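Lab channel / #folding
Pinned by the channel admin:
"Please post every new chain as: sequence first, then the structure tokens as a reply. Keep commentary short and put observations after the output so the thread stays searchable."

First post following the new format, from NK:
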Amino acid sequence: MAEFAVVLPSWFDLITTNVASITYTSTLPQVSRMLRPLRFVRIFRLVQFATSSLQQQAWAAMLTIVSIVFTTAGVVQATEACLEACDGEPRVCKCRDLSFPNLLYFVVVSISTLGYGDISPVSTSGKFVIAFVILFTFIVVPIQVNRIQATITSHTDYSSAYSEAKLHPHVIVTGYVNADTLSVFFGEFFHPSNLNWNERVVILNASPPTAEINKVLHANESKVQYIVGSPMLDEDLTRAVISDASACYVLVKRQSSRPQYADQCCALITIALRRGNPTCPIYAQIINSRNAATLLKMGASDVVVIGMLKFSILGRSCQVWGLPTLLLNLLAQCNSDLDSHHSSLQWQRQYLHGYMHGIFVVDIPRTFSGLTFGDLIRFLYDKASIIPLAMLTDDGVRFMDMEFKLGATADPNLCCKVYAIAKGLTAVEGVMKIPPEQILSYRKGVRRKGKSMSSNSLLEMKKIKPALGNEIEQIRESIINMYTVAEDYDVEAALGLAERDFTGYTASDERLVGEMSEYERFASLGVPEDVTDHIVVCGFPSDTYHFIKTIREAPVPDDNTPSPAVVFLASNVIDEREFERLRGFLDVYFVQGSPVNFGDLKKTNIRSAISVLILTQASEAQYSDPNMVDADAITTVRYIVEISQRTRMPNLVVELDKSSNVKLLSSLANDRRTSSAFGLPALVVRNVSYRSPRHDSVMSAVSRRDSFWTSLDEGDGNTDASFVLEEFIASGRVFMNSMLDSLMSECYRKPWITQFLHLLINGSINDLEYVLSILSSPFFTLTIILSVESDDCFKWKHRMN
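Reply from TO:
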């Protein structure tokens, strides 16, 4: 439209030249010449080059004012110009020839201060134009200013881009984020013992941070930047500088009511991140194991399968006492010297000494080549107090035979990488400082007393090649194969269910008309009266298959001892598709009811159970206060304590979603009966009741305990450090979901640690009995948790060979 308007004066000039009746001073040509300054409006095309909404509004406001000034000056010059010579005063001639700079000055002064009077329009049309422009400016300019203010108000720090990519490397965290997950993640990622502690974290989330998340962000504001945006949009990934990211984390909503949908969202985010950076490591969380292989094929470097990992640990915890605490303490980082924190209780000193140990990836120097893996364990324990457990090979992480001989790798300085338990980063760094003379002397002594091996064993060991972590694709393929087994089983279960739906029965499930199906019998018959030494589970795991599979694969004392039966107590039965996956397991029963009902608990024969597992079934959305999510689990503990008062207390394991709620569980330990029933460590004076007149003695003991915890928190710099001393955690009876967040953070600096953890819990096809025998050994648990300092701490591995 502006182009058409500015062309009109040229047409009228052409008309006045060829038509005698229309002269140059006629009204219509004069009016048309006033349209020529409108060509300046085309300067608004520059707005399209702005890169943000704030820049667009700022450019629009500035160009609006500039356009008003220049256009008005041009229009006034055209209206005030003297088309015919006039020797009189301007007010008499009703015209005036002014230079364009003077007109610019006049317009600026007129619209800003209503004029000084030194220059004023003399023509009627000029006065009308100036009056209109002043009114127009009073209306338009404030509107533009308000738009800028609104844009600035909405343009918070959460909509800016990450600008420190060249100064500080960064990782991107996206997916489902909440305050609890971020708190644990930051505590591990920014821990002083983390070699990458100086890196930055960029959180890319579609929603603005909540009040709880803001508290976590303020505690780490110098190292964390929150960006509101979608990882599915290229412009938002550009603001997060995905091209320069060192790593990416994709988090899943663990308590999602639609697990498959949550996994699909993580898969789409993984694809978008891989498009943005083809080489960046991507660590993703998912819920269902059936989606793990697919996610790895879509570009994820490693996956943490929440359901499979959590319920494998819980399943093993039913038979290996203290396993949740063992893994929690090994995954949590501890930098300070906790041995300097003196406690009046012997168990605390030993326990804290064990808490200082963790899982590390240790680089073994080239000078160790020629030693066997068993010799490496013995030597590193003697010289550096390090216990190697597994080795990184070109097929992934695996347990090695004690007679496997360490060879050479492509790196001239390294022999191999091992996953080991060590007392802090200092012990790990000490391996590279061991004098080569000591290693050579030890190797010569080992050769003199070496023993022969079978040719088959030698041939098998030669196929194993140590890796340095660069064989990413080959290791990923081995992980994909590990998860494909579960995926194939799901397909078979689905096909079996489809066949059942189509024919009404299968070859393995033929029954008479009116007879209950296997699923109906499972849902209605309950528990036989003769079931004893079984496992009671309050609630259904989200991955029931891997939970029972872990229990069934555990070794038994002899061939005559059956695997324990599993009894589920829940308000609703699992669906038929999930039951299809469990049909191959024997001695699995279901009781419909509530664990806070004594009658329903008795139906499970709980008094003769060897283990009781309490799962958190609720979600945060069910409560106005999200910290109430563990209310059912904590209440259930009370009921089980009451019903087990006159019998032996089973091995009780409780799942908690909120770490802070463990203090509510530990309040049960103040009851002497509960303490003795659970076998809890004595943290306060148990022979004094809170109801007795000696209440002050108990409070002073609690005060001393709290002061000890305070010094622990201040020395360690970890706000959750005191949780490890809570009675229920110290006794190995609590599984906290924060362990999974700690593992997620560790993926970056300890590659393939998830595969190592799966191997540690579930073993592999070739060494399953070997691993389970180690994990079932009480001495193994005591060695790591209490860190008993003796030569026997590594001998168990040799005895298991």
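NK: The first strand starts at residue 170 and ends at 175.
TO: also worth noting, The first helix runs from residue 2 to 18.
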